[in-house]
């Protein structure tokens, strides 16, 4: 049997071989950190392909549905741009050009024959995180041990997206084990951030984040158990949605920690356009995933909730801003973004109050205890087939001495011990719900807070190996709250100067503070979260659209 | 500190003390097995109280809403009848007459003042399983160790029922630990079956089943993790519903195996009238329990699903009958009931095909492994406060040598081992869903099977200590399918003769067969289940109503 290293090398070579030679570009030198503009300037894309790939999801779907653009033309354009992205930030895993173009041609043929779209996502290329099995393709999920395992059928979500008329065309990079907020593994290596390649693209859906940011895909699917849709969305400056457990089907996809039934991973969209969030969720839910996946929640798309019927039709909402989580204070550009959103929403006629976090540290700790209960054994069993090393730190060239945030070393827990942590988590969910309800006294709308607005992390994308604190996202997984990511600004060292602080919560807070060096974070996107209640996807999408529109209006006025 | 025995004796005495002396009847001798008619004949109830307590839920709600009957009159009538039931079958735990009557008087006052009902369950007395905390009352759940623990607040469901205008008035008996299909504990002793007191009332909601069967309550709330609503409903000949996880709020209630997040206990109605199922579910769901309990599913009452809009409006359905589960063949009266339903539904114009069970034994085993993972420690930790013995068999006067179906003796599992069983269960859920979908080929309706009809157990209510096999109900908990219970007939030794069998699946099947002795089971109700998909409460209720109406029409014709 070949060594794990040989297996990985062969797989990577096979990936390289399927890239059409004529789509290779002259890559910029490694010293070029910001590569976000290179797809526009490298010369591979035609002017029409640039128009197509710069269009938002709503526009793409309209032009595809009207027949103005064919599925083949749109797929080809995004395909070429994805291959450019791959050469810039190493974001892809499986590349299946011919299959995708054949599917696009089928769609065009059907459209020509019937004059109608196949489904609500007709002709839209969609990239998929490297967990979503496609019949006949390998899914390695960053494990060398899974090289050579070809799927016998599609994941349920892949079937549904295809029924909706979408065109899956590439899969995207992940960290080995998925349980990491950056993206690197023993097969494909590391994905970098297109805004600044010395920074992480985030993880675990970091391939998606980087690809979508470069507009190499109009819409991708990531997964999120502790922030894995939201962290890369935030790091790369795009939109993302973490739905509640079961709203989007997970069946037939690969995963880590399978059988862990308490804090579930969920799939959600990562997209360059605000309209992509609704397009994805409405299409998937209207396909009735509960008839195909036993864990999918039988809950129809609720247009009334999307119209915010019970919330003054969205005219006067009350948002609560969480300035910090009580564990560590965010870096200056994050706080600047929060202030901008506060001013923008106030100007738009909404109420804005402060969100007081409760028990965030404990919720984060409980989440880690629950995952750690059996994670170490899970990772080892998976990796043992080839003996590939478990990557225990994401620090490049590390001697592995650095202790990482989620690499459980110990032997795990008994089931009874696990149950005690799970019980405590449920109790804290009840406490948090009461806390939310109690805000009715201070919103001025007669309702409790409509949504929380908070950082996605205490920092923008960090240098590789330094994204260590995920609790600004993970706490909402523990509570199963719906949460989206929207972009606000980017780090500008001229504005986002380092501000001295006298008082710190503790040594960790100080450490986070000291990480901030404006020049290091230059150009890093700054995104925030909109957080709503459990299974309130429709409401959260609508409120994210309201916030996003308000920000765009303000930006135009400025 | 007093011994556990003294604590239990004192608690039982306190219960006895709150029963109004004038409501004591002369109890029938122990040799009187069938006591179902005694409330009518004992002389305690006035003719009007008999009319009230014999009315169904729909009629009660209408007469209360029109002001024809007051809440005080209705509560008093059911109260008296509940106290009669207690003297016959020992079904109650907490008795709080004054509190309930005060609440009823408040409702009458509000109705008089406003001319309107307080809510959809205005004035309806509701009994509650002894897990549903009520502020200021003890909840022992069959544990001596919990005597003296007074609740600081209501369970969420109690709050919602009160908001809906219902009048909680008694709590009902359970087995110690809840994890048992019969009803006995060290405090209150054993609840018996009013149709035949030598038989079990079932469990764990056995107090509810017996009370509702005697019409001592028009509607009760039970809980169901493996059949605990359905088994007592079936044993006692009343209606019951096991909703899917989270459809009815569980927050603030006590429970066993807390923190076990994989196969969840759920609350559901147990009622003497078919109309009670919808009345309860619609009222609770319309109260938006997800705003009060983080585990309650945000899913509105779906009137279209109740109207079976996507299922030919219920005109021509396809039911699949599961004659046995592949593990043990039901007793003759159960099979007779299935045949009657088959003929009735066919006559009513529906299609009826056979349901082929798959993996039922493995699903039952996995369920037990998941519960056993930490159950032993859970029980021991709870009981250790007073040192009361864990009841390891329900056989009366047993020397404890008999091995019982769910009394885990061993040390439990590691979290990683638990995850492997949970993963396998999820895989089997996916397989079962495919199996269900595949029936589209044989239903003749263009849809997969609309509902399964199957036994609730291989036997009717058994002699005490002999209800050992719960997998006819438990398998649907593992799959999280919605399942109701409806009555069909009762055991008639003249018809339900013992039938010789030559071939047996295995020794266990033979043992179940040999248990059947017509005379022993005389008068035992025979009920069946209607089983639908996950979170299809509206559809299952509607289809149960269709089956029930067809049976009633047939019975009238005969």
TrEMBL record, chains A, B:
Its EC number is 3.5.1.4. Gene3D superfamilies: Amidase signature (AS) domain. InterPro entries: Amidase_CS, Amidase_dom, AS_sf. It catalyses: a monocarboxylic acid amide + H2O = a monocarboxylate + NH4(+). Keywords: Hydrolase. Residues 74-540 form the Amidase domain. Coiled coil: none annotated. Transmembrane segments: none annotated. The active site is at 129 (charge relay system), 204 (charge relay system), 228 (acyl-ester intermediate). It holds the Pfam family Amidase. One of its GO terms (molecular function) is amidase activity. Substrate binds at residues 178, 204, 225-228. Belongs to the amidase family. This is amidase. It comes from Boletus reticuloceps.
């Amino acid at each position: 049997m070949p060594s794990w290293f040989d297996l990985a090398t062969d797989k990577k070579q096979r990936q390289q071989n399927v890239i059409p030679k004529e789509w290779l570009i002259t890559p910029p030198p490694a010293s070029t950190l910001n590569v976000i503009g290179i797809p526009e300037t490298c010369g591979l894309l035609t002017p029409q392909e640039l128009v197509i790939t710069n269009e938002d999801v709503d526009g793409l779907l309209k032009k595809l549905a009207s027949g103005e653009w064919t599925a083949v033309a749109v797929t080809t354009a995004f395909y070429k741009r994805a291959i450019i992205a791959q050469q810039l930030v190493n974001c892809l895993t499986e590349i299946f050009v011919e299959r995708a173009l054949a599917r696009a041609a089928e769609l065009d043929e059907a459209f020509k024959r019937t004059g109608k779209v196949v489904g609500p996502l007709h002709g839209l290329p969609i990239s998929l995180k490297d967990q979503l099995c496609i019949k006949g393709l390998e899914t390695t999920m960053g494990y060398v041990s899974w090289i050579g395992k070809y799927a016998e059928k599609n994941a349920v979500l892949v079937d549904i997206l295809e029924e909706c008329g979408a065109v899956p065309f590439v899969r995207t990079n992940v960290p080995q084990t998925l349980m990491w907020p950056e993206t690197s593994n023993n097969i494909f290596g590391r994905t970098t951030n297109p805004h600044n390649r010395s920074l992480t693209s985030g993880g675990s859906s970091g391939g998606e984040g980087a690809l979508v940011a470069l507009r190499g895909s109009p819409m991708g699917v990531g997964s999120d158990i502790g922030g894995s849709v939201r962290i890369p969305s935030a790091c790369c400056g795009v939109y993302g949605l973490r739905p509640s457990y079961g709203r989007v089907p997970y069946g037939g996809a690969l995963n880590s920690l399978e059988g862990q039934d308490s804090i579930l991973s969920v799939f959600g969209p990562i997209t360059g356009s605000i309209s992509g969030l609704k397009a994805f969720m409405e299409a998937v839910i209207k396909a009735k995933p509960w008839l195909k996946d036993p864990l999918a929640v039988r809950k129809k798309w609720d247009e009334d909730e999307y119209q915010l019927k019970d919330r003054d039709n969205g005219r006067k909402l009350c948002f609560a801003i969480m300035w910090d989580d009580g564990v560590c204070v965010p870096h200056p550009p994050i706080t600047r973004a929060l202030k901008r959103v506060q001013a923008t929403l106030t100007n738009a006629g909404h109420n804005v109050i402060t969100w007081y976090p409760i028990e965030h540290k404990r919720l984060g700790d409980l989440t880690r205890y629950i995952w750690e209960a059996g994670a170490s054994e899970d990772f080892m069993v998976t990796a043992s087939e080839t003996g590939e090393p478990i990557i225990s730190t994401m620090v490049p060239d590390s001697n592995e001495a650095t202790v990482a945030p989620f690499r459980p070393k110990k032997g795990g827990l008994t089931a009874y011990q696990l149950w005690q942590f799970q019980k405590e988590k449920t109790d804290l969910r009840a406490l948090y719900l009461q806390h939310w309800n109690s805000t009715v006294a201070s919103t001025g709308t007669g309702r409790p807070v409509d949504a929380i607005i908070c950082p996605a992390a205490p920092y923008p994308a960090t240098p590789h190996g330094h994204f260590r604190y995920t609790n600004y996202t993970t706490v909402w997984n523990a509570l199963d709250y719906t949460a989206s990511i929207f972009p606000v600004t980017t780090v500008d060292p001229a504005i986002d100067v380092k501000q001295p602080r006298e008082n710190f919560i503790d040594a960790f807070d100080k450490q986070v503070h000291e990480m901030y060096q404006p020049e290091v974070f230059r150009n890093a996107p700054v995104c925030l979260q909109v957080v709503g209640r459990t299974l309130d996807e429709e409401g959260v999408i609508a409120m994210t659209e309201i916030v996003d529109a308000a920000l765009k209006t303000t930006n135009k006025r400025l």
